Amino acid sequence: MDLWFSYPKDSAERQTQKTVIDTIPGYRVQVISTDNLDEANGVRSEVFFKTNEKDIYVVFEPPFM
Fold first, then answer.
1. 8: Cβ contacts below 8 Å, ≥ 6 apart
2. Ranges of each domain in the chain
3. pLDDT tens, 6-48?
4. pTM, rounded to two decimals
5. Which residue has the higher pLDDT, 31 or 3?
6. Closest to 62 (Cα-Cα) out of 18, 30, 27, 14
7. Is the separation of the CB atoms in 31 and 45 below 8 Å?
8. Mean pLDDT on 55-63
């Protein structure tokens, strides 16, 4: 199931509250966890060429302040 979030504009609210605005059936598999964007994009390309899957995501969540 995919979850789509709506984020509040206020930074204090943003850290504590997310609102689900839509869902769809399915699943995702995490392939790598890294703080190196070049490495993440390299793995994304490798997975794309090995699977021909078009929906490959690189997700970045900023650290808490």
1. 14, 17, 19
2. 2-51
3. 555 665 555 567 787 888 888 888 899 988 889 989 999 999 9
4. 0.54
5. 31
6. 14
7. no
8. 80
| Beta-bridge partners for 35 | none
| Residue type at 20 in one-letter notation | V
Tell me which residue has tokens 């869902």.
23
Residues 61 and 52: their CA atoms lie apart, in Å, by 26
Please give the Cα distance from 65 to 55 (Å, whole number): 30
Q: Kindly write down the DSSP assignment for every residue of 27-55, as one continuous string.
A: --------S-HHHHHHHHHHHHHHH--S-
Q: How far is CA 32 from the centre of its chain?
A: 12
